[in-house]
Specification:
The chain is α/β, with parallel strands linked by helices and 314 residues long. Helix content is 35%, strand content 26%.
């Protein structure tokens, strides 16, 4: 039987500490197995189709395949499924809502990298793009360090205001709304961007030297959040070198990455070298990150015994 895990069930079975530990394990593991495949295809009209496979982590006897529809004007903008398969015989163990898995794994992986690369005392966070990804980053980051002040900007002022009210209540802190990205970034020791932008939103002059920036929105050709001068000056860390240059923030020209986050966690290359350094984390998102969340969720759902299931072979 195949378990069917909806958005609400995924949220129910998700344990933040387990997910963060699984993501740290995945990043720390030395690269092995087949290269991650990320296929993006534009569709007639406003949308695109994306597939990520295979999601593999050593010692997990399963793998994932994710298929997404991406329609920026829709709500939610991302829809699809994550298929969890048995690694021994290919049995379909579970089908999970991909919008929820993607938001959580992207946000929590970003929170982990942000915590590691930002100055130890940085507790003022600026959010540019008040969507699901930003919410998950804050959930994870709040688990890893104190967040004492928040500034938010979004192209939709009403959404920014709603986000500010929500996060102020959840975090118990003061939250400001900024009129534009540079104003939002000016006060933050940590800046997180999660947008659909196709033009740079921040340049070097907008930031203090000690700032850490996490840019989550650039995961396909044509998208951009950070200007080249900023990326050249910053110590830039990515999740995968080839993908960062092919479809990510480094898209085949200009700045190059200083390290992958895996290399930083394994101690092979430095991340932040001192508290005055400008750092940037610009991930694309890797298939194994889906598995890092899908596997413990599947185990929790199976143990609870109350998730719906279907026999696709019946």
């Amino acid at each position: 039987m195949t378990l069917l895990l909806t958005a609400s069930q995924i949220t129910r079975y998700l344990d933040l500490d387990t997910a963060l530990a699984a993501l740290r394990t995945g990043f720390t593991a030395a690269p092995a197995g087949p290269r991650p495949l990320r296929t993006h295809t534009a569709l007639p009209g406003p949308g695109s189709a994306t597939a990520l496979l295979p999601g593999l982590i050593d010692d997990i006897p399963a793998y994932t395949v994710k298929v997404n529809a991406k329609f920026p004007g829709a709500t939610p903008a991302l829809r699809g499924v994550v298929c969890l398969h048995d690694l021994a015989d290919g049995a379909l163990l579970a089908v999970l809502d991909s919008a929820t898995v993607t938001a959580w794994r992207t946000g929590l992986a970003a929170a982990l990298a942000t915590h590691v690369l930002a100055p130890a005392g940085a507790d003022r966070v600026s959010i540019i793009g008040a969507g699901a990804q930003a919410r998950m980053v804050l959930r994870g980051l709040g688990r890893l360090r104190a967040v004492r002040r928040l500034t938010v900007h979004d192209i939709d002022p009403e959404r920014a205001a709603a986000f500010a009210s929500e996060q102020g209540r959840l975090l118990g802190i003061a939250v400001d709304v900024a009129a534009d990205p540079p104003s939002a970034a000016a006060g933050g020791g940590i800046v997180v961007l999660a947008t659909w932008s196709r033009t740079p939103l921040l340049e070097l002059a907008d930031l203090r030297p000690s700032t850490h920036i996490t840019s989550l929105g650039v995961d396909e050709p044509g998208k951009a959040e950070l200007a080249d001068d900023l990326l050249r000056e910053a110590r830039t860390v990515v999740d995968d070198l080839e993908l960062a240059q092919a479809v990510g923030a480094l898209q085949g020209h200009g700045p190059v990455a200083d390290a992958t986050f895996g290399e930083v966690l394994r101690g092979e290359r430095p991340g932040r070298e001192d508290d005055t350094q400008l750092t940037a984390y610009t991930p694309v998102g890797l298939p194994w990150q889906d598995l890092a969340l899908a596997w413990p969720m599947y185990q929790a759902a199976r143990a609870a015994g109350d998730a719906p299931s279907v026999d696709f072979l019946a």
